Amino acid sequence: ETTPRLPVIWEHFQECTCCSESFIRSDHPIVADIILDKISLDYTLTLMAASGHQAEAAKKATMEKYKGEYILCVEGSIPMGADGNYCCIGGRSAVDILKESAAGAKAIIAWGSCATSGCVQAAKPNPTGAVPIHKIITDKPIINVPGCPPIGEVMAGIIVHVVAFGKLPELDSSGRPKAFYSKRVHDSCYRRPYFDAGLFAENFDDENAKKGYCLYKVGCKGPSTYNACGNMKWNGGVSYPIQSGHGCIGCSAKDFWDAGSFYSRD
Ligand code: SF4
Ligand code: SF4
Ligand code: F3S
Description:
By secondary structure, the chain is of the alpha/beta class. The protein has 10 helices and 9 strands.
């Protein structure tokens, strides 16, 4: 009860905000407990009541008071084209804002495929010159949490780990928390017995699809995608893409937009 809440600054750059949308739907732990009890979310363009100069003042105060102590969360990629002018907030470019807010951070959490690999903005021909966070900030620990978006409970779990243990979770060679990204979607898929038996849907509307056979031949990228969807599922453990009849498009895999068709094995 006497431990101060962990100060957090959450930046939004070139993104769609669905990482935030996913986060606020975490129900175990429930997001209200995190925001109200575990952390002090001092700056986020999506959830904070303040706006304009008041909001910027709140961020500045946190950067000064908690220098070296606050966690910086970043949602979105950084456009480096046109001197960074494709994404500006309050008259400043995303790259300038990122460098400033990262300078005093204890660690950075890069949310989603935008912040970890550039996502759709960085897909060919990458008109804004979008890059992920680790291409710009190289002197701070970064937790990469890929997915478009990541699972809300994964996001909440990573924050709670940092709060509870005061250190980063164990990461793999790509900077992803091993607890959530060490297995392929294929490894926990309930359709896996059909894959192993060679039983596949050939089209989305054929008899085999209706029987729930494996979606590999209609493009499922589960065999090459590392994420916890098969175990944790979405919307509080209700379902996930494959359970709703669509193959995994590899949304947590690096550069998945350019990796090939979503609907074939190309
Ligand atoms: Fe949106 Fe996907 Fe980027 Fe998250 S990773 S902000 S869901 S485009
Ligand atoms: Fe693997 Fe996808 Fe088939 Fe599931 S549906 S067994 S993830 S290929
Ligand atoms: Fe993304 Fe595949 Fe999971 S598309 S949500 S990693 S099943």
